[in-house]
Amino acid sequence: MNLIMKIFIIIIGLLWFTACSIIDRIDNRIAVKSVRNSLIDKNGTLLASTNENQKRFYPYKKSACHILGYVKKSNGTKVGVKGLEKYYDVDLSHTSLPLKLTLDINLTQQMSKLFENKSGGFIVMDIDGAILSAGSFPQYDLNIFINGTIRSHYIALLNSPNKPFVNKLVHNLYDVGELLEPAYRLSNNNHTIIQKYGFGGRTGVDMPNEFHGFIPSDKSKNKNILVTPMQIANFTALLATAKLPTPHFIQKRKEVKNVLNEQELQKLKLLQKKLYSRFNYPKELVNEINNKFHIAGMITKHNRTAWVTSYAPYENPQYIVIVFLENSDKITTKYIMYKIYNYLQKHHYIKVEN
């Protein structure tokens, strides 16, 4: 073999090695980019991540399961199936930074203990729509979809009458009875006007496939307005501040709308006083938060579901708290609400003027 041929073979070999190295680097970059990004709470606590085996992991298991959602494999990549994993699927697949939520997972975890063996949910939201904590119950361990689960266990969850796979905050409709009394008073019982208070349409919360709710027409057989708990939370914010926010779980989102006219604003002032006076009677039941601030709201039981919807402080609204329990009582519902306000006070979320 002459010298020219040897040189030619060496050059071809070097080119092949270089090409292979470039391809390997490209593959590695693609692999790095394909790693799904993390979800963290408002304090930086990890809520969802991808481990070294490319498996999605949820360290808090059941807590906020309906909010976070989960992933499945599709064409070799992980895609969001429910919750924030689905709503922000593109962001989680293509951004380099963790997605930071408005959630406080510590509060969410503590409240979950109060809902053991119960069916219902709760929402804690600031007046601008940032959701500090929320839960739908019963819950389920998100990791069962990653690690696999016994089919009989999955079928039992699927067929449970308490619907653990349903996010009741946005995917269940309720006839809430007198909770809508303020909406009727503001609108003079006009169903068309009631829609601008956030009923009969989506709130805009960053959850996939949010239900619209139902406002009956003259031709409807069902004459009752049906709502989601998220709509009730949003309407409570309107009652507290005269402004309608867009509920959200991601810190960058914020939108607040003025939807009331002058006549409605005047009515609202009277309604606010009534929401305070009715909620705080009899006074012997109002001592759970050491009189640090006052709460306004409503508590009722309708169609076997107990509800409490509230805002505080009454004089300077900062947070909305709603709690609902199916097949339960008003006392338990109000007790959970007080536990939430105690947490908000203790951890300085609610700022009280001295």
Describe the structure.
This protein has about 350 residues and is an alpha+beta fold. The protein is built from 13 helices and 13 strands. It has helices at about 5-35, 65-70, 85, 90-95, 105-115, 145, 150-160, 170, 180-185, 190-195, 230-240, 260-280, 330-345, and strands at about 40, 45-50, 55, 70-75, 75-80, 100, 120-125, 130-135, 245, 255, 295-300, 305-310, 320-325. The strands form four sheets. The chain has a five-stranded antiparallel sheet with strand order 8-7-13-12-11, sandwiched between helices. A four-stranded mixed sheet has the order 3-2-1-6, with no helix packed on it. Strands 4-5 form a two-stranded antiparallel sheet. A hairpin with a 4-residue loop joins β7 (about 120-125) and β8 (about 130-135). α9 (about 180-185) packs antiparallel against α12. It starts with a helix and ends in an 8-residue tail after the last helix. The model is unreliable at about 25-35 (pLDDT under 50).
